[in-house]
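Complex record, two chains
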Amino acid sequence: MGMVRYIESNGTVHEIDVKNGTSLMQAAVTHMVPGIEGDCGGACACATCHVYIDPEWRQKCAEMDPLELAVLDFAWDVNEDSRLCCQITMSEELDGITLRIAERQY
Amino acid sequence: MTFSPDNINDLLCSLPEPMLIMSSAGEIAFCNQALTQLSGFSQPQLEGQPITHLLPQSERRRVDVVSWLSRWADDPDPAQLRFLTLELVTHDNERLQVSVRVSRYESHGANWFLVVLRDVTSEHATLTRLRHAQLVTNRILAIGEDAVISIDANQRISFWNRQASSIFGYTEEEALGHSLEMILPTSLLASHQRYVQDFLAGTEGHRLMGQRGEITGRHKSGRDIPLEASITKTVIDGQTVLSAQVRDISERKAAESMLKESEARFRAVFEHALEAMAVLDDSGRVVEINASARNLLETEPSGQFFWDLNWWRETTPEALHEATERLREMTGTVINGATVRTTVQLSSVTGEAKKIDFSLRPVLNSNGQVIYIIAEGRDITAL
């Protein structure tokens, strides 16, 4: 269990306790964090859970696989901090991570 | 009869779905009538143009249309096809969302792509609106003071909000998919089952709190919880969903019990006081009168003015009138905030002469207004 801070593009902060092993998209959807849609249910098929993660946290996350990189092509305003949070699983190391939610998912 | 089209070009042109044929370099080699209708471009305006003329590169999305179409052609049914849409820009500069299906076609050693496009703009907008409405509803449910729980016809929990976790001690994860029995005391399982069956069979759409009275739930720790619940049913595709709004009334019950105790204490003091006591409202009517005071009367008072009670006996009508008027005047000064204390002569129900130390005092609220008047009489005959 660790804390994840989701920040909406308008600055609203949601701090949520997430169990280890839960995807950061699923935790956001369960806790109704606005701005994370997760249309495909975590199959890395829809690009609607796009977030930005600062480098110090990004290096603690599992590496991006080629499919996530490819699907990110469909997300809006992608930059080097971009990740699809359905592909990030909560762990001890990520306790305190901040995810900045993309302005739009569609 | 065998179907053999004379001209394959005419056949493709007549297809009801918008389609185009693209070269491996991304050039539009052919487009059909449905696509010209959808896009507003004519065939000559599209044929020979790069596909980006119709499906342009967005400044804010890095998707490269040609490489994605080629990817989809190689994997004819990827999961992404259900979710990822491309943006088509019409002749009138309207932006449409299109889902695509692609297949690769080889001819004379060259690769061609057959691309079918379907306009999903409206479906997408509807879905987005619904999702946003659902998000708002869910966030309202999340912060509500009451637990909200839904069950299916088999009484399996299908919705469980945050307040339900706080009342019953189970997380959403622990509750979803489990039987409602987990939050009911064993002794009530049968009666609850009957209640649910009765509600399912009935014609009412909902029953509100108060119609059923108090019910009992069970916390994860095994502790019983006094509850009130409103229940509603929704039938979707023949499947019934029962939803309940459940309120923990433990605190209210504790407050009620404290109030009862406090009332009992007050009543013990009031009813057992040797002094005669009465509580009057701000107009001088009797609200409460204790046993000692009732001993001075022949009849039980019920809402009369204090001065009209039968305090005086064995007296002439003139003397009675005078005594009544005097008490009314005294009460009048107390209604205006003064305190009165005097000695009066009365006789008890049994005819004994009594000398009474009598007082009238106002009780004020926080604004200084008189809300009650306390009348007290102490028997000082023997003093």
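Note: The two ends of chain A are 31 Å apart (CA to CA).
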